[in-house]
Amino acid sequence: MANQPNILLIYTGGTIGMIKDYETNALKAFNFEKLLDRIPELRQLNCSIDTHSFEEPIDSSNMNTDYYVTIAEVIEEKYSEFDGFVILTGSDTMSYTSSALSFMLEDLAKPIIFTGSQLPIGHLRTDAKENLITSIEIACSRKNNLPIITEVCLYFEYKLYRANRTTKINTERFEAFASMNYPPLVESGVHLDFNFDLLHQPKEYDQKLIVRKSLISDVIILKLFPGITEKAIKAILDIPDLKGVVLETYGSGNAPTYPWFVKLLEKSIQNGTHIVNVTQCVGGSIIFGHYETSIELKRIGVIDGKDITTESAIAKLMYLLGEDIPKKEFKNLYEKPLRGELDF
Ligand code: ASP
């Protein structure tokens, strides 16, 4: 590691990178090459910053698995050159993207921090500067000359979270994200307060990064609601080539006990589709068998998503489906934490 950490800032798009053109009043993309001129405060950080911008920045509603791979490839190519990476994306799908990257980047030993903002960087009351400056500061933080953060995280409004534990919960407030089932890794106040016991520890700091790029998109999120019809569930499970379903159930993993419902799911599992049970609640966990209404799901082989978020569950499905795991082992592997995304 060089004396001064070297951070690569990757801009993919989103509100954070916008400034107001005061002549036309319109928001336009910010030129990240001129970052240090625009935000001179960054010069006070004890690090050097390089930037890489998507040629055509996207609104994060247009995020897809090809862009996931593009981000992963930038990190792969620059991994040995930089000590940490800060990735700017729109907040709308940031939990999905950062969860996916947490699975794609295996044996990580450097910080990867996603951030964005609710207001553009050029706005008078912007939250962008704090989010950006603190993300870079955390990415630079070292202990005994080693990086403190060695996992994929998301920073927003004074808190650094494990990315694959987050959900966007608010369109309005600066505190746009929550991590209900895992406490923040760092809280930013007068000092940066690291919760050292919660952090991922790499096996070795000089281990080789493995980048997993074969994601399978033949998956779907199916949210139950009282009154959902047989024809709707059947149509979804009959989607050609469907390989995985994240089934959002009620409370601690409960679903209707109607025979038609259980039979449709059972048939789909027998045909090779992996179905994961996650809760619709923002916090808490699946407890299979706690109520009669989840016993049938367990019996037919539904995967226990435990306390995983929906965003992380769909990312984990895409990732594991791409890894060609034998059918017998898939459920077992899915139910284990691979990147700290669920409690064992
Ligand atoms: N629509 C924007 C996006 O997700 C909102 C944001 O940047 O936070 O790209």
What does this protein structure show overall?
By secondary structure, the protein is of the alpha/beta class. The protein has 2 domains: 206 residues, 3-Layer(aba) Sandwich (Rossmann fold), CATH 3.40.50; 116 residues, Rossmann fold (3-Layer(aba) Sandwich), CATH 3.40.50. It has an 8-stranded mixed sheet, sandwiched between helices. Strands 17-18-19-20 form a 4-stranded parallel sheet, with helices on both faces. Helix 5 packs parallel to helix 6. The longest helix is centred in the N-terminal third of the chain and has 14 residues. It is globular, with a radius of gyration of 21 Å. The chain starts with 5 loop residues before the first strand and ends in a 10-residue tail after the last helix. The site of aspartic acid (ASP) has 10 residues, from loops.
Which features characterize this protein?
344 residues, alpha/beta, Rossmann fold, eight-stranded mixed β-sheet, four-stranded parallel β-sheet, globular, binds aspartic acid
